[in-house]
Amino acid sequence: MSQFWKPGTEKPRSCLVDDEEGGVLFYAAPPSSSGHGYSSFERLRQRLPVFKYRTAILYLVEKHATTIIVGETGSGKTTQIPQYLKEAGWAEGGRVIACTQPRRLSVQSVASRVAEEMGVKVGEEVGYTIRFEDKTNQGVTKIKFLTDGVLLREMMNDPLLTKYSVIMVDEAHERSLSTDTLLGLLKKIQRRRPELRLIISSATIEAKSMSNFFRTRKKNDGQASEDNGPNIEPSILSVEGKGFPVEIFYVEEPVSDYLRAAVDAVLLIHEKEPVGDVLVFLTGQDDIDAAVQLLTDEARETTRRHSGLLVLSLYSGLSRADQDLIFTPTPKGKRKVIISTNIAETSLTLEGVVYVVDSGFSKQRFYNPISDIENLVVAPISKASARQRAGRAGRVRPGKCFRLYTEDFFVQDMPVEGIPEMQRSNLVSFVIQLKALGIDNILGFDWLALPPPESMIRALEVLYSLEILDEDAKLTSPTGFQVAEIPLDPMISKMILTADALGCLEEIITIAAILSVQSIWVSVRGTHKGLDEVKLRFAAAEGDHVSFLNVYKAFLQSGKSSQWCYKNYINYHSMKKVVEMREQLSRLVRRLGIIPKSCGMDMQAVRRAIISGFFAHASQLEEYSQNGMYKTVRSSQEVYIHPSSVLFRVNPKWVVYHSLVSTDKHYMHNVIAIDPSWLTEAAPHFYQQRRPSIPLF
Ligand SMILES: Nc1ncnc2c1ncn2[C@@H]1O[C@H](COP(=O)(O)OP(=O)(O)OP(=O)(O)O)[C@@H](O)[C@H]1O
């Protein structure tokens, strides 16, 4: 595959040229401004573009309830503004300054950077909280970084978030479900707490529409004591200037295989460009594993092109220790290549990164409330994401960003911003959280983007069937309130609570942890005999969930050996994440006063616990089906067991699945065989009232 810069256009000032066959050639877009680095933190801080705006920011925050700050990536918004606020006294009298991020990884990394700049330990004056991990010290922590999801959870105990004086919602352009929920709720809190200040920040936000949202009020929003309070008209501040220049390069012709093109680009950079690490944006674990494999294979074939490359992957299914590797300094004479999903897209500064390779794609969630299928689809990113990705270079020195799409595509076809997650997600967790906060009229609430009514109805239906909501759509006691306490998908939470009663919580925690990673198997492109044979070795007649227990047990017996994983086509990184997640879940249930017990070999208890959460995902094999066609009980939808399941071709009469994915057909992922009478026992309300046509088995 070859691409060339446009003949007849001005020759690039600097470009990658591959003189061998099959390479990639980029041409350069116009350059941006430049800057310099300094050694001491204080001088470094003062060199950042945001520093010139320190006084203006503090003035606006003092005078306005809401301030919207837009500034280039790397201009210093995330690390500096919380420090300015603290210096100006916003953390005095026991108050705390909060700064939210959409992702855990950026929470941890910005917290440690700010602590370092302030010369304090993380967990003291500067702390962070992410799901399952709290590194703050009450009464001591003044600046707290946290995910927006965690701040939402804090509202359950403190609905007005009284301990915070300023809440900075960073990377608001992401429009994640949690960010949008948070913004809607914060707007409401402001009416009750005029002293609370909000800062909404991003490099790529539509400031005008955000400002309109905070300016307008619904009639029933209540009135703040505006006479003495701050100006409710939001202020907008644009931070001019950027850190170091990032040259943008585009491919001349669209690439047909972005994965191969990304690998080629890395090899070219390694051959032609001076020292500096490379950050590559691909879409998911499977892509990333494949790219790592391709780079490793190249190394075997042509050591010249490859020597000195240190290839690391980065995705959310990695354990914390594996993720932390990306922050370790690159050894002399080596070049680190980090192949990542969009978890490295915002807020991160990776000191060694000079080059960014952007595939132009990410995995995005799309939910169809009619079929109840939520698919992770590889789709083109938005301009905002592309700018964020480029912004991972040029933070401590000049950088280059190689986009594996054409400039025309960027200019003409990429949307300015992505579709808000609220409009393309399953809303079950969202609804339960709002219910726990006592918000009943969810559709009548003031949202930045209205959640689709069909998705809301579907979510209410699911929560009602799980007996988490009652007929008045209020949380049930104790189940609803307990489930709302657990920061997991409500179906998993319900399964955990039932497992306690059935005495199989140890097993269910393992299953819940495994279901939370993308896959415990090594991803291989196409079919793979070895993997199929290994799967058979662990296969349990009951289905995938019980087979997972066999894998986990064998992994423990091997002494958690990476060699054992390698031999058995099991993804060692995923297993480490499972162990970590398992520990977190054990701690969580103990906090709720539950002591996990094991049911030994009683797999019926395990299956019954699974059904208690997933009874609505039952399917029956079509009686005369030749090709393994099932129909879902809920909507008579045609579905099939996924080929990766141990029950593929076994086709038990009745099954319960974990999730549906659609490719050429609708496939059931992670399936167990069940006795249909367990369904009516687990959810009589669902099966007898709502499904009178379901036979009495
Ligand atoms: N861990 C780090 N190591 C070295 N320098 C860092 C680190 N974190 C931040 N910096 C420096 O501080 C600058 C500002 O970072 P900061 O995250 O505050 O910017 P930002 O405006 O919030 O960017 P973004 O919009 O990308 O989140 C970086 O460009 C970099 O020069």
Automatic annotation (TrEMBL):
Residue ranges annotated for the Helicase ATP-binding domain, each copy included: 58-223
Record keywords: ATP-binding, Helicase, Hydrolase, Nucleotide-binding
Entry's EC annotation: 3.6.4.13
Domain Helicase C-terminal: 262-438
Source organism, top-level taxon: Eukaryota
Pfam families linked to this entry: AAA_22, HA2_C, Helicase_C, OB_NTP_bind
Catalytic activity reported: ATP + H2O = ADP + phosphate + H(+)
GO terms, molecular function: ATP binding; ATP hydrolysis activity; RNA binding; RNA helicase activity
Coiled coil: none
Protein known as: RNA helicase
